[in-house]
Amino acid sequence: MRVMLRAHFDTAATNEGIKTGSLPQAVKTLMDKVKPEAAYFGLHEGVRSCWIVFDLDDSSRMPALMEDLFLQFNAELEVGPVMNAEDLAKGLAAMQSSPS
Questions:
Q1: If you ran DSSP here, which 8-state letter would residue 14 be given?
Q2: Res 72: pLDDT
Q3: How far apart, in whole angstroms, are the C-alpha atoms of residue 78 and residue 82?
Q4: Does the pLDDT of residue 18 top 70, yes or no?
Q5: Residue 79's closest CA among 53, 58, 60, 41?
Q6: Neighbouring C-alpha atoms within 13 Å toward the C-beta of 82
Q7: Distance of CA 3 to CAs 18, 38, 67, 76, 79, Å?
Q8: How far apart are the first and last CA of the chain?
Q9: Contact 38, 19 (CB under 8 A)
Q10: What is the pTM of this model?
C-alpha cells in the first residue's frame, strides 16, 4: 500500500545530528530501506520536516523503519495511506460503476 510518512524533527536533536553526521546518515538509511516514490524535505510549523511516499507492503515493518527517528531526533511521525491521481481516478470510476 502506498503511504506517506510525515515527520517533524526536534530542532535541538537535529542540530546535534547535523554536527555529528547522524542526521544525514539516518535519512540515507531510511531512503535505502523504503526506496521512496517521492521524498521532500523542508520546514513545517517552524521545524525541520519531511514527507516521504513509499510502498509499505507489511505494517510490521513500521517499527524497524521509524524507531530511529523517534530515538535519535525526537520526531513526531504520522503515516497514512495516500493515492496518486491514477489511483484516485480508478477509485472514483469504481464508485460510479457499482450500484448504490
A1: H
A2: 96
A3: 12
A4: yes
A5: 53
A6: 16
A7: 27, 11, 17, 16, 6
A8: 26
A9: no
A10: 0.89
